[in-house]
Amino acid sequence: YSIYLSHRHPAYWDEPQAFRPERFGREGDEGKKRPSFTYLPFGGGPRNCIGAAFAQIEAKVVLARILQQFRLELLPQKVHPHMGATLEPRPGVLMRVIRKQ
After folding, report:
1. Does 28 have pLDDT greater than 80?
2. Cβ–Cβ < 8 Å for 91, 81
3. Is the pLDDT of residue 79 over 80?
4. Is 72 left (phi over 0), alpha (psi -120 to 50) or beta?
């Protein structure tokens, strides 16, 4: 079983290779219903990550604080996904960080 492949399977996701965070909202992917365990960022079942809820809330708070104080601009670049214990961009993601007035 490959979490990487299930997260990109065209039977479950419209445009599976596209970065579309809105697909996870209430109206994402036109309200398409998916079978359980098609998206597993923290594992699934009775032994999923105990810190999942905390991690999601913490990520939202940190991102909100950053976006309150800075404007982020993605710089043109070629990013290659690297699969290890987690999926990460190589050589990284270059951004311009501009403090808001």
Report:
1. no
2. no
3. yes
4. beta
End-to-end C-alpha distance for the chain, whole angstroms: 49
Please give the pLDDT value at position 63.
Answer: 96
Nearest to 49 by CA among 83, 101, 3: 3
Tokens of 96: 């311009």
CA 80 to chain centre: 16
Tokens of 97: 């960080």
| Joined tokens for residue 58 | 């913490």
Question: For residue 21, is the peptide bond before it cis, meaning its omega torsion is within 30 degrees of 0?
Answer: no
> Using 50, 70 and 90 to split pLDDT, how confident is the model at 40?
confident
What pTM, to 2 d.p., does this model score? Answer: 0.67
Mean predicted lDDT score pLDDT of the chain = 87
Which tokens is 70 given? 């800075």
Rounded to whole angstroms, the Cα distance separating 23 from 39 reads 12
